[in-house]
Amino acid sequence: MSVKMTDIDNTRLEEAMQVYMKDQNKETLVRLVYAIQETKLFVPAMAAEKQGGFQPYIIKNSEGDLYMPAFTCMKKFPQNQKYQGMLKIQYKQCAAMLLDHPTLVQGIALNPFSDNLMLKSQMLELSRKVEQSANEQPKAYKVKTDDFRMIMRHNVEFHKIPERLFAQKMEFIRSISEETLCGLYQEPYAEVGQEKNYPYTKDDFEIMELSIRDDLSIMQMIPPSQYLYQTNCRELYIVWNPLTEQVGYYVIEKGLDSEAVDFHLDVFQEDGTWEKREAAPSDGNVMNRVMELFGGEP
């Protein structure tokens, strides 16, 4: 492949990647997060007629998950692989593409044809949180435990649950129990080698399922109230029509510290996007409002 642009020196990042891939723990994770902060990456791109510019390529792994490929230097490009274009952009811009405009793309695949290190959404969130924390000292490689827990939980409630729900629908709904829900919340900890720091048990979760009519059912899931931070969810709702298998996903999200609203009602779409629809109704009215939004008044 011929690319007429200056190469990038990402030696520090590549070293951090190798250390992390050999031993995935909190220290190596945070070292990787700090190493990538100010870097630039090569991102394969194709013409985007609607935008009048370029849009990144998307690749799919063997499990069907979608990722945006990015390369740390020219020697990491795959041999004989041709792209319409190549963007040389800051990592922060890559992360913003995925975090600020949520889609089914689950993260960034760094050097997918060699290292193939997957930076999933929770790691992108963590890197953004570190960047925003002006008091953090990169040389110390420290991340506050509260921030870490917040990001791990956010990843489950805003990514893992809706992705599996809309992909598997009734199969996923039938699999839900306090035990499987607890296991789902534990997955992000396991993915970064932090199982021992997972703070919950199955007894911390509550589930209630109601069959309203032949064509309307709803499940309320109450995650633990312990370690409930901004952007985390107080309640989760799955609504479905058993006759058509149409499904919906809604959450009561804790507002940002800078916001006047304590809790939002968020609505998720099947394409992976979501919106803060409105301030959360009073406790006794949440379920009715969720069913109204789904399109089936009780």
Indicate the topology.
Layout: H1 11-22, H2 26-36, E1 40-48, E2 53-56, E3 59-60, E4 66-70, E5 85-90, H3 91-99, E6 105-110, E7 117-120, H4 121-132, H5 145-168, H6 170-175, H7 178-191, E8 206-213, E9 216-222, E10 233-241, E11 246-254, E12 263-268, E13 274-279, H8 286-294
Parallel strand pairs: 4-6
Antiparallel strand pairs: 1-2, 1-5, 3-4, 6-7, 8-9, 9-10, 10-11, 11-12, 12-13
Helix pairs in contact: 1-2, 3-4, 4-5, 5-7
* Number of separate strands: 13
Strand content: 25-35%
Instruction: Describe the largest sheet.
Output: 6 strands, antiparallel
Strands across the major sheet, in which order? 8-9-10-11-12-13
Q: Poorly predicted ranges (pLDDT <50, ≥5 residues)?
A: 134-142
Taking all residues together, what is the mean pLDDT? 84
General form: globular
| SSE arrangement, N to C | HHEEEEEHEEHHHHEEEEEEH
Derived structural class: alpha+beta
Helix content: 25-40%
Distance between the termini: 60 Å
By DSSP (H or I, 4+ residues per run), the number of helices equals 8
> What is Rg?
21 Å
